[in-house]
């Protein structure tokens, strides 16, 4: 008899927005892609083979304005997402991940196993994408925010990160009235000493303006 247990490494982001008077004005949540370099760092730390721990003094949350390959699907099948507006190089996207971020099938992420000029092939979708499905394609071999100029890294709030309960670690940083006032498109957790990023997510969260305070909480779990 063969027994197989699935273990999932997951990152969950929570963004809360407050206006210049401290009034709550919005909240959004999304999941993320772990970077290859971040996964390697986790196992180095677990095994005592070096690495730099993501402590309160060293961990940061980064925000930038660079987005990924994105668009709105024109259709799909059980194993494809189609966007006839694209002209991708065949198989250039293999190994990257496509996530449906809005519309039909929202919340699904799949690894790309092949692509042609206008479609990507993946393992079977639970819900087949259609012409309402907005998507992003992300590369786990990237190592940091991709923004050239508009990127900001903030230190942890007091008491974070937390760990040791509920099979997760929780990171939190606050971006004050004069911090990161631009379009929020990409997000990482970064170690300020090793410069290793655990994860990166592309998600359009709107534009932060002067006077507003936005907080980011990130839960990393293994279950």
Layout of strands and helices, then pairs:
Layout: E1 9-18, E2 24-31, E3 33-34, H1 36-47, E4 59-64, E5 69-72, E6 75-77, E7 80-82, E8 97-102, E9 109-111, E10 114-115, E11 119-121, E12 134-138, E13 151-155, E14 162-165, E15 168-175, E16 186-191, E17 197-202, E18 213-222
Antiparallel strand pairs: 1-2, 1-18, 3-17, 4-13, 4-16, 5-12, 6-7, 7-11, 8-9, 8-12, 10-11, 14-15, 15-18, 16-17
Average residue pLDDT: 92
Oligomer state equals single chain
Fraction of residues in β-strands: 35-45%
What is the structural class? mainly beta
CA radius of gyration: 18 Å
**How many strand elements?**
18
Helix content: under 10%
Count of helical stretches = 1
Largest sheet: 5 strands, antiparallel
Strand order of the largest sheet: 2-1-18-15-14
Number of domains: 2
Distance between the termini: 23 Å
Contiguous uncertain segments of 5+ residues: none
SSE string: EEEHEEEEEEEEEEEEEEE
Question: What does this 3D model show about the protein?
Answer:
It is globular and about 45 Å long. The mean pLDDT is 92. A 5-stranded antiparallel β-sheet has the order 2-1-18-15-14, with no helix packed on it. A 5-stranded antiparallel β-sheet has the order 3-17-16-4-13. Strands 5-12-8-9 form a 4-stranded antiparallel β-sheet, with no helix packed on it. The protein is built from 1 helix and 18 strands. Helices cover 5% and strands 42% of the residues. With 223 residues, the protein is mainly beta. It has 2 domains: 13-66 and 143-222, no CATH class; 69-138. The chain has one helix spanning 36-47, and strands at residues 9-18, 24-31, 33-34, 59-64, 69-72, 75-77, 80-82, 97-102, 109-111, 114-115, 119-121, 134-138, 151-155, 162-165, 168-175, 186-191, 197-202, 213-222.
